[in-house]
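Translate structure to sequence.
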C-alpha cells in the first residue's frame, strides 16, 4: 500500500524540516571546521582526527537503524526527529566542558546519537513529493546553507574577534536550540504501521536495494568525511587557519548551490547516471590531492568537492527511497546506519595513512573510489521516479 502524497502539506513539511536542519547545521558547522585545530591543541594527531571523524557517524549507526524501524513500527516519525535534534543540542553544551581529545571523542559520539532523526525525517520527505531527487536536494540545500552561515560566523568569531574555541562551541550550542522550533509545525503523514520486526524488515528488502547500500558503503570507505583532512592539508599549504576556513566556506557554498539542480537532474535522467558523475569527480579530486598544489588549484578542488557532496548525498538518499517500497523508514535507517558503521574503520585507516604521509592517504582513497565506480556500474534502477 503506497502512501498518498499531499503536495501542499508535503511542500510545507519539506520547508519546515529544511529550516530545522538549517538551524542545526549553523551550530554544527560552527564546530566542524575548528575541530581539527581544537583536537590538535589538546594533543590529538592524525589518528585522533581520523578516529573522531569515523566515530561521529559510526557509533550513531545503530540509532539510525532503530529510529527508522521504530518510526515504521509506531507510525510516528516526528517524535523521533524531535528527540534526535534535542540530543544533539544537549551534547553540544556538554562539549564545552571537554578537557582532552578523548573526551571530545566521547561527547561527539553521544552527539551523533541524535542522528536517529535522519531516517524518520527522510521518510517524511520521500512521501511529501513525487520528485524525490528535488525534494532531497532542497532539504540538502537548506541544511548546507546553515553550514555556510555557521562557517561564516566561526570565521568572524575566530579570525576577527579572537574568540576561544570553547566560547565558539557554546554559541554554536545555543543557536542549535532554534532547530527544535519548526518541528512543532510539521504535519505527521498518515501511514500504515509495520508489523515486521527489525530483522524481518532487513530480510524483506529487495536485492537491488541491498546491493546499492553495499556500493554506497564501499564508496564511504573513501568519502568518510574527508573534508577534515582537506582542511588540514589546506592549512599546511597556506599556513593560515583563516584561509583554510575560507576554503571550507567555498566547499559549503558549492554544496548548497548544486544540491537542488543535481537532485532534479536525477529525477529526469536517473539516479545511476548522476551518481557515476559524482563518484568519478570524487576520484579526480582525490588524485589531484596526491600532488603538490597551489592556492588557486586548492580553491578549485574545494569547490569541486562541494559539487561531489551535492551530487552524492541527496541522490543516494533518493535512490534508497526509490528501492524501499513501503518500508522507507527501515530502509533509510539501514542505509544511514551501515554508512555510519563503515565510517569508523574508514576514518581510522585514513588517519593512520595520513600520519605516514598525506599522499599515501589520498592514493588509498583514489583506489577505493575507482573500485566503487566499477561496482556502481552493476546497480539496477527502478523506474518509479520517472512518473
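Result:
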Amino acid at each position: 500500500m503506497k502512501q498518498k502524497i499531499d503536495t501542499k502539506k508535503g511542500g510545507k513539511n519539506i520547508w519546515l524540516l529544511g529550516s530545522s536542519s538549517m538551524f542545526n547545521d549553523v551550530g554544527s558547522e560552527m564546530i566542524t571546521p575548528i575541530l581539527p585545530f581544537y583536537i590538535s591543541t589538546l594533543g590529538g594527531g592524525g589518528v585522533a582526527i581520523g578516529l573522531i571523524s569515523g566515530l561521529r557517524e559510526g557509533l550513531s549507526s545503530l540509532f539510525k537503524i532503530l529510529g527508522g524501524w521504530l518510526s515504521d513500527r509506531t507510525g510516528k516519525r516526528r517524535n523521533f526527529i524531535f528527540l534526535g535534534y534535542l540530543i544533539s543540542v544537549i551534547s553540544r553544551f556538554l562539549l564545552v566542558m571537554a578537557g582532552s581529545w578523548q573526551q571530545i571523542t566521547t561527547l561527539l559520539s553521544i552527539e551523533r546519537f541524535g542522528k536517529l532523526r535522519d531516517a524518520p525525517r527522510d521518510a517524511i520527505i520521500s512521501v511529501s513529493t513525487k520528485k524525490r531527487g528535488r525534494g532531497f536536494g532542497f532539504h540538502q540545500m537548506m541544511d548546507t546553507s546553515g553550514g555556510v552561515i555557521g562557517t561564516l560566523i566561526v570565521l568572524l568569531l575566530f579570525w576577527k574577534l579572537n574568540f576561544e574555541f570553547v566560547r565558539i562551541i557554546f554559541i554554536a550550542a545555543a543557536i542549535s536550540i532554534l532547530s527544535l522550533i519548526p518541528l512543532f509545525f510539521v504535519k505527521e503523514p498518515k501511514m500504515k504501521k509495520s508489523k515486521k520486526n527489525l530483522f524481518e524488515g532487513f530480510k524483506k528488502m529487495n536485492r537491488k536495494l541491498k546491493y546499492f547500500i553495499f556500493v554506497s558503503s564501499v564508496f564511504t570507505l573513501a568519502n568518510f568525511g574527508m573534508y577534515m583532512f582537506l582542511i588540514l592539508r589546506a592549512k599546511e599549504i597556506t599556513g593560515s587557519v583563516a584561509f583554510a576556513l575560507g576554503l571550507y566556506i567555498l566547499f559549503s557554498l558549492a554544496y548548497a548551490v548544486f544540491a537542488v539542480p543535481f537532485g532534479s537532474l536525477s529525477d529526469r535522467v536517473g539516479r545511476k547516471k548522476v551518481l557515476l558523475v559524482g563518484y568519478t569527480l570524487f576520484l579526480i579530486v582525490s588524485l589531484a590531492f596526491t600532488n603538490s598544489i597551489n592556492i588557486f588549484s586548492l580553491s578549485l578542488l574545494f569547490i569541486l568537492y562541494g559539487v561531489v557532496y551535492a551530487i552524492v548525498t541527496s541522490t543516494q538518499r533518493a535512490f534508497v527511497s526509490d528501492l524501499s517500497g513501503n518500508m522507507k523508514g527501515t530502509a533509510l535507517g539501514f542505509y544511514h546506519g551501515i554508512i555510519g558503521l563503515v565510517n569508523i574503520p574508514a576514518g581510522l585507516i585514513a588517519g593512520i595513512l595520513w600520519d605516514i604521509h598525506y599522499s599515501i592517504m589520498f592514493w588509498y582513497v583514489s583506489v577505493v573510489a575507482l573500485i566503487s565506480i566499477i561496482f556502481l556500474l552493476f546497480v539496477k534502477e527502478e523506474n518509479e521516479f520517472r512518473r
